Give the backbone structure.
Amino acid sequence: MKSFRTISGIASLILFFAFVAGVKAQETFITVRAKAKDAKFLGTSMGGARIVIRNAGTGKILAEGITEGGTGNTSKIMKQAHERNKPISEEGTAAFTTSLELEKPVFVTVEGYAPLNSKQAAITSSTQLWLLPGKNITGDGIVLEFPGFVVDILSPQTHEAVSAAKPVEIKANIVMMCGCPITDGGIWNANQYEIKAVISSSGNQVKDIPLKVGEKSSTFFAETRLNSGVYEIMVYAFDPVTGNSGLAKTNVIVK
């Protein structure tokens, strides 16, 4: 009886390993996109988003790359009503697409870092899901959301020395995370956002000044007078409707 059980156990192992050996990896296509909150997709015009797909259990990187392409169809994304199961992306809309050879289901972390060309505004967004052999995730694919604004202070320049006898000009360029412009009365309406400069010296706030929308799209400005000293200027943008926020800092020396 013992000999029979041993033979039976060996036979089962042989069958198991034969089954495993017969399992073939299946090509599985995965599309990942990065989308700005309340705006469009992050693509080549902003340097794209760096995408990493890794095994959530082992940390092994299965695929990585950068989203490439355009920001998408403005009307479809921002103006039209979205129906369930109807894609908002089109051919040419920014994406990272890869194929994985999967023998079995794998639980993954999909991580994006963007926008690559605006380091002061770049953030990380991630999600987790099961990938199944041969089950493609395409179309809109896996969409990672990136909240915020990209804020660049144009004036004063970093460590610039200015005269106390003249007003200090504060100017900033502010766009959505996808690079979409902010304009007076536009789709991304400057009048909806709170945009201010907060001026501090030695860690103490001196004043805060609202910035006005300029004639050039996405440009905001203000002027103020400051006494002699070294100041930090922080410019921030905040959308009370969506919660989007962004900021940048610079320093100026007033003599």
